[in-house]
Amino acid sequence: MAVKASVPMKSDSPSKKVWRRFRRNRLALAGLVLLVIFVFTALFAPLLTPYEPNRGDLRSRNQAPSRDHLFGTDDMGRDILARTLYGGRISLSVGLVSVGISLTIGTLFGALSGYFGGFVDTLIMRLADVFYSFPFLILAITATAVLGPSIYNIMIILGLLSWPGSARLLRAEFLKLKSVDFVASATAIGASPAGVMFRHILPNAFSPLLVSATLGVAAAILSEAGLSFLGLGVPPPAPSWGNMLNRARPLHILANMPWMWVAPGTAIFLVVLSINFVGDGLRDAFDPRQDLSGKRK
C-alpha cells in the first residue's frame, strides 16, 4: 500500500502574523477604524460640509447647533463643523510631518551610534542628553517665540526636538543586532558599513521604531494643540484644533457656548486615544513572544 508523502503546511508570512495578532486586539482595531474615519473626514472635508472654514457670517454668529450648522457657529459666524474637519487636516499633518522629521534624524543618529560605538556613540548620546535636560514644552515655546508661529515652524520645531527618543531606541536595537550571525556574514563578504546598517540591521530593528513613531504622532498632535492654545502654534484664521480651543477660552464662551470647544476638544481626545490604542496594538503584535491568542508564551 502506497503511502502519500505529507505536504508541509505553508506558514504565514511575518506580516500576516503581525496583522493576525493586531486584529485580535479589539481596542487597537477600534482605534484603527476611528483613526481611518478621522483621516477620511479630513481629506474629504469639502465633500462633507458646504461651508468654508474661514468664511464668517456675522448674522449667524454664536448660533447653537441647528439644522443649518450641525455643530453651531463661533463668534465670527464661522461653521464649527467645517473648521473642525479642516482643522483635522492641519493637526494630523503636523503630527505626521514632525514625526517624519524626528524619525529621519533619530534613525540616522541611532544607527551611527549603535553600529560604530566609541566616540561616535558618546558624542550622539551626550547630544541627546542635552535635549533631555530641558523640558520639552519650554524648548518648544522658546523656539516658536523666536521663529514665530507658523505651521511649518511647528512641524520643524517638534521634529527637531523629538529625535532623541527614536535615536536611543534604535541604538539599543543596533547594539543587540550588530553581533548576530547574519551581520557578521555581511561584513565578511565585504558589505560597506552603510549597507550593513541600512540593508541588514535596520529592517530587523524597525518594528519597535514603528511603534514609537505611532505614539509620537499622538504626542505631536497634543504639542501642537498646546502651542496653538497658547497662541504660539498655527496662526489664525487657519483652523486647527488647538487654536479653536484658544478661541473658546473666555469664561462666557466656556459657560454659555460649549459647542465652540466641545467639537475640537473631543476631536483631540478621540484621535490621541485611537493612536495610543493602535500603538499599543502594534507593540503587542510585533512581540514574537505572543501567540495568536494575544497571550505571552
The SSE order reads: HHHHHHHHHHHHH
Mean pLDDT: 86
Form type: elongated
Count of extended strands: 0
- Beta-strand percent range: under 5%
Class based on secondary structure composition and strand pairing = mainly alpha
Q: Could you please say which CATH topology of the domain at 95-291 applies here?
A: MetI-like fold
Question: Which homologous superfamily in CATH is the superfamily of the domain at 95-291?
Answer: MetI-like
CATH architecture of the domain at 95-291: Orthogonal Bundle
CATH hierarchy class name of the domain at 95-291: Mainly Alpha
Radius of gyration: 24 Å
**Largest sheet report:** none
What is the count of DSSP helices, taking H or I runs of 4+ residues? 13
End-to-end distance, in Å?
Answer: 41 Å
Structure description:
The chain is mainly alpha-helical and 297 residues long. The protein has a domain at 95-291: MetI-like (MetI-like fold). The protein has 13 helices and no strands. Helix 4 (80-116) packs parallel to helix 7, helix 4 (80-116) runs parallel beside helix 13 and helix 10 runs antiparallel to helix 13. It is elongated and about 75 Å long. The two termini are 41 Å apart. The mean pLDDT is 86.
Brief write-up:
With 297 residues, this protein is mainly alpha-helical.
Draw up the topology in text:
Blueprint: H1 14-23, H2 26-43, H3 45-48, H4 80-116, H5 118-132, H6 136-147, H7 151-161, H8 163-177, H9 181-188, H10 193-229, H11 241-247, H12 251-256, H13 259-285
